Structure formats: structure tokens, C-alpha cells
């Protein structure tokens, strides 16, 4: 009995519950620091929603000029996103994050001192390039540093910080709205430089991505990072073996530094994507670009950027009422994105995404109906005003619990290592182009087909997105990045094969 008891005690000690939290805390800290880059985009989106009210009055701009000013940063960010893939392969993920923060810092300062519309457009260009870099690199780095057990949780952090940035922007709007017309909006935009300074300092404490280190032949450094960011030494060894295999390094090689002869900086990637893709790569590309398209085409940036305008059409008259209601939108988005981070690795990507988009469809169609009723009524309908505000909050909440974070998690984890940087960059390009089109046309669209009609249109697009996600996106929960490619290539029939069965088993667990 004593021997059995001792054996039991020893076996329990072998699990040492203190080790796993320590290592996961290190990965958690790395993900936090990397994801802070997303605050830059969130703050810009949030602050512009209120700043445009005062920019329009101060610089005497038209609706079209405002649409261009707000939406053009999404197109400017394409430059940063397109450069980020090659840059991150060249100088590393970590220093690419520093570069993103530095560029945005310059853009925010320039926006804060803008004397006129052309100068403000130039400052938006600089900030947009920095945002493009940040959007691409944050999910890539976080995906590559995260252990499989909590990859979904950690990779959702960029979306968490986007929402946190939006909320900060909304609060900044309300706070600086009390200043003079000329100073208020410039302070709103200029304060955006503060997060980029904090980001640059925080990045100094981050390790480099282990996958990038292996691609550069620095196996010793990669091993140290993997030991700190894995749940066990066995897992760290398995992750290293998988990455070495993907990089073409023999598994038996144990040198700290090796020569990687087939290092890929993107030269053959585009051919593999577009000229002779395998069925799996083709499926991965369609899934990644599709999820980015439908995330933005369902109108989220129109709601976030033009919340004051939507609330004005719903019946809120004063600037203060509109900005306060907008702050409520920011709180709802932030609360539900935090809920999503805890569900991603428990529920799985697929069921959470389908539930989220279903809620978005309901919210958008109901919002379109309530705004149409208000638009056609001569009397003040308090129930319709309340319903409109409630549906805006419902829409951003259901978006944040699934479609928001899963887009970045899913698209950053499904690409093979050799294609990841460029694949993630393409996803960001689709995301930003779609967002740019939506944000640069929303006011004109709502004038043409009414604001209610615009939300009926977004609801229809979201329904198409639900069908696309149901048929095209396999579950990726619990799979290592290196085995992810095997889940793709069967399109709608994937759920009938082994991968689909495995996904169902994982969800059941």
C-alpha cells in the first residue's frame, strides 16, 4: 500500500501543475505585446467616427470628401500589408512590429497638426501604411509563437486590441469634443501617437518567432523560444521537428546554427498560389480570402465608422447623445470580444463563426426594418428608436463573438509555413479593400437606397457569408500548424472524410 501510495504521489508530481501556466504565461505575454499593434487600427477607426463631425464643420467638407477621408486609409494600408510579408521574412516578425509602430506614430503626429484637407490626406497615407504593417504582422507572429492548446485564444488578441482601440477612440471623441472646433479634432487624431510609443518599447521584451528563426537556420534560439512557449518539452520538440521538416532541415540536425539552402523569401510563393496550386492550397486560399471578404462586406466598418450618423437617422439629435451611444457600441464590442477569446479553444472556430454570422443576419435585417419604419414615419416612434439602438449593439456584439476574431485566427493558422507571410498579407489586402469600398460608399449608398435599404443589403451579404462558411471552412481547433494543410482540399465534402470526423470528435470533447 505504501509503495502504491508513493508511486501515486510520484506520478502526480510528474505532472507538476506549475510548469504549464508558467510557459503559457510567457506565450500570453508575447501575444499581448504583438497584438498591441492592432490598437493602432482600432483607435483610428473609432476616433474618426466622431472626429469627422468636427472636421466636416471646421474644413467645410462635403459628404463625398468625408467618405474618402475616412475610407482611403484602408486602401493606403494595402501598401503596408503588401510590403509586410516580404519585410517580415527579411528582418523578422519582431522588428516589423517596431516598424509598424514607428510609421503610425509619424502619421498620427501629422494628422494632429494638419492645417487643411490635402495635408490631412497625406497624414492619413502615412498612418495607413503603418496600419497595413500592423494588421498583417500581429496575427502571424502570435500564431507562430502560440502552442496548439491555446492558439485560438492567443491569436484572437489582435481583434481584442482592435476593439479596445475603437473604444479608446470613442472615449477620446467624447472627451475632446468639449474643446474648441479647431483644436478638438486635432487632439483626437494626434493622441493616437501614444499607443505606438508604448508598443515600440514593449516589443524590446519579445522573442523572435521560432518559425522565422528556423527559416534563418537559428535552431538554438528557436529551441529556447519553443521551450518557453510550449506546454511541455515533448511538445516543444515536436513543434521544432515539424518546423524543421517544413523548412527542409533534417530532423537529426541538432546544431545551433545551420545553413538553410531552400529558404523562401516569396519568390516561388505566388506561382504556388496562382499558377500550379495543389487542391489543398487552392482551398486554403479561397477560405482565407473569403472569410476576410465576408467579414467586411457585411458592413461592420460602416457601423463602427458612421455610428453617430446612424444614431442621428434613428432619432438622436445632439452630438452628445450620438457620441455617448457610440461609446456604448465600443463597450459592447469590447465585452463580447473578450467572451470570444475564452470560447475559441473550447467551442471551436466553425460553430462559433456560424452562430455569430447567424446573429449578425438577424440584427442587420431587424435594424434595416426599424430604420425604414423611422424613415417613413412622421411621428417620433420611441420603440423604433430603441430597437434601432438595440440592433446596432446586437450586431456589433454578435460580430465580436465570432466573425471578428475568427477571421484573423483562421486565416493566419491555415497557411503552410512556406506560404504564411504572403498568404496572410493577401488576406489583409482583401480585408482592407472591402472595408475601403464599404466605408467610402456608405453615405452615398444610404442616400441612394435609404439607410434601411443599406442594412438590408448588408444582411443579404451576411446570409451569403453564412452559406460560404458552412460549405468551405473545416474545423481547425487543436491541430498543429504543420498538419493543418491535410484538412483542406476536399471543399464541401471535407466534413464526410476523416478530417471532418476528427473535427466533430474534437468539438464533442
Automatic annotation (TrEMBL):
PROSITE patterns: MFS, SUGAR_TRANSPORT_1, SUGAR_TRANSPORT_2. One of its GO terms (molecular function) is carbohydrate:proton symporter activity. Residues 30-477 form the Major facilitator superfamily (MFS) profile domain. The chain crosses the membrane at residues 26-54, 66-83, 95-113, 119-141, 153-171, 183-206, 273-294, 323-344, 351-371, 383-411, 423-443, 449-469. It is a multi-pass membrane protein. Keywords: Membrane, Sugar transport, Symport, Transmembrane, Transmembrane helix, Transport. The keyword Membrane applies. It is found in: Membrane. This is Major facilitator superfamily (MFS) profile domain-containing protein. It comes from Glycine max (Soybean).
